[in-house]
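PROTEIN DESIGN WORKSHEET
SECTION A - STRUCTURE
LENGTH: 213
TOKENS:
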């Protein structure tokens, strides 16, 4: 069976580190509570979807191992992201995975509460006959990226945390002649407004009448 690795990039639940934009509006404690809820929800969905991939939590900052350990599920491992910018950290994580013999690597964050196990299965399926798979985010970034081989160019010269991350990544892929599969567009939770929208969506879904055959 192909050796696949799911990388989860996440931050320690520390004031000033996690959900700083939410903290600026709602305060540190609310931001940390939201961060923990997003992380635990994401990891529970991953753990409930055995798909043949191994899972590696890449955490920041690098001295946060003890804070990340409670989020580990059996068989998972943790690795510090390392310094440098996000592009260098992503490139290193992908390089490490392919050096370990992986035939496909996918990275996600923990800010997308609508990500499902089905999305991950679709991503792995896409890598069977595509070089790159991308999950576009509404804010111009991406909530998932995967490759079937090392593609360091995808992480170079990107204005991270900007609205051009997705466009720049796709432009690089086109310039390198890579085949790309786009998944569905989803929302990340980065601001208090994003969180309010997520809660409203949950409430609407809960209030909707169920459909029975």
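SECTION B - SEQUENCE
RESIDUE ASSIGNMENT:
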């Amino acid at each position: 069976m192909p050796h696949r690795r799911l990388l989860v990039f996440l931050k320690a639940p520390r004031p000033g580190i996690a959900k700083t934009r939410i903290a600026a509006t709602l305060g540190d404690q609310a931001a940390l509570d939201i961060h923990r809820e997003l992380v635990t929800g994401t990891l529970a969905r991953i753990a409930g979807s055995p798909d043949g991939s191994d899972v590696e939590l890449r955490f920041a900052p690098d001295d946060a191992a003890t804070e990340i350990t409670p989020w580990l599920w059996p068989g998972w491992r943790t690795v510090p992201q390392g310094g440098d910018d996000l592009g260098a950290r992503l490139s290193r994580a992908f390089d490490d995975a392919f050096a370990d013999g992986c035939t496909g690597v996918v990275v996600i964050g923990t800010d997308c509460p609508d990500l499902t196990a089905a999305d991950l299965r679709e991503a792995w399926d896409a890598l069977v006959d595509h070089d790159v798979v991308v999950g576009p985010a509404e804010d111009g970034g991406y909530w998932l990226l995967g490759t079937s081989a090392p593609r360091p160019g995808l992480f170079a010269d990107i204005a991270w945390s900007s609205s051009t991350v997705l466009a720049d990544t796709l432009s690089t892929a086109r310039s390198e002649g890579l085949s790309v599969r786009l998944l569905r567009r989803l929302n990340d939770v980065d601001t208090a407004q994003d969180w309010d929208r997520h809660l409203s969506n949950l409430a609407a879904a809960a209030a909707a009448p169920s459909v029975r055959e």
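SECTION C - NOTES
The chain has a mean pLDDT of 93.
Residues 4-207 form a domain with the Spore Coat Polysaccharide Biosynthesis Protein SpsA; Chain A fold (CATH 3.90.550.10).
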